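Before the break, one more example. Copy the sequence into your notebook; we will annotate it together after we see the structure.
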Amino acid sequence: MRHRAPSHPDELSRRELFQRLSLAAWTAGATTLTWPVIGLAQDAKPASSPAPPPLNRFSRVVQDWFVDQVRHIEERILAEQAALKTKSDAEVYVRNVQQKIRRCFGPEPERTPLNPRVTKVVEREQYRIENVIFESRPGFLVTANLYVPKNRKGPFPGVVGSCGHSANGKAADAYQPFAQTLAKLGYVCLIFDPIGQGERLQYVDEQLKPRRGIGVAEHLHAGNQQFLVGEFFGAWRAWDGIRALDYLLSREEVDPKHVGITGNSGGGTMTTWLCGLDRRWTMGAPGCFVTTFRRNLENELPADTEQCPPRVLAEGLDHSDFLAAMAPKPVIILAKERDYFDVRGATEAYLRLKRIYSLLGAPDNVQLQVGPTEHGYSVENREAMYRFFNRAVGLPAIESEPEPTIEKDETLRCTPNGQVAELKSRTVFSFTSEKSRELAAKRKPLSGDELKAVIRDVLKLPLGVDALSGTALAAGGVGKNDISPAASADPLTPQYRILRA
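Here is what the structure looks like once it is written out:
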């Protein structure tokens, strides 16, 4: 296999970023821990450190508050699941989580014409690769590679491949192997570029180079802008996946009775969400993502916008519920022992699903594979996915993955020079800007008590909190921008100002 080193910091994969951050943190920690030990050996009474400034003493209060909230939510989820005793109970639970997931992601947009076109065909001995462009929304181009078996009689089971945070998207060394192998085994596999990766950068300069980074940077940038107009970036990512399935099912080579989805890391995220959103999937294999929200929060795991669905905790949902939404269809959780997506949470998610699947009479339709290494769609997990999917569709078992041939990025390009921007594709921002103008035209001016009431409702502020300042309303006449009396009385208490409009 051919491996490429990133040529620019923006091209670091999510795994490489975490590895570098971990090494830097370990080095800093080692330096910090070494010097005090030497000092203690020399000085019987080490000098005490000055107390941190008051404003820096509560750096974990928000984190600890959220962890406490999520623990309580998880307790309620577990209690609800423990109350399931019969097949009927489990069926009701599945229907309920399906409805909750839809409320989190909102209504689907209109299913507009895909307008697909094949821009290139690459012939290989056991399969062909079609470089495809389709529109998930009007004028919003999605680039994809369709791997089709050769020398076999169809129709074939189909699989949608969802990419993780790879700079070159569908062409990444980590993802070509599973698409090739699935085609060799007799599947049609469609793997597509995520927004902000591969050929779908949204913020480019005149030379088609990234202006906001690649992958994570673009996801956060576009996602934060969308929050302002009530959109969720994860729903946009998921809609691309749903339209990818639409295209896959439009192909005469594909058997609609057997369609699966798999992906790793960010692709594992979208695989998980899509299992909960679309009833057409017949099998799923999310990798290096499924754990629990509690584990993620306790571990202070960084996350992209699309990995945090709105209202998901308020609805009482966890990662496992998105997979429960497709129960009792076959699903396998692909985890890793040394992943930053906590394997303990993956095991907990599996056990929750196992109970639901058992009540539904299909305990063997859910499995857990834990690979021995760090984050990534490694060969052990890919082979587990092949075996599981083959069993689900009735194909012979596979012993090992055949040696893949890593294609050059240029071979898998759908566009002339590697970016949809040159084809005048619409961008996420163009839709966000358009909706912002539409909302502004409908929005009536607000002021005074009416403005406060709207802010209180949107932010869900408790009674006794001022809607404009966000601070507790004082009963004893604290004036505009005065220092809090409680703060002034104790020099160790952080000083803060109560702001007034």
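The chain has a mean pLDDT of 86. The first strand starts at residue 117 and ends at 123. Try to locate both features in your own notes.
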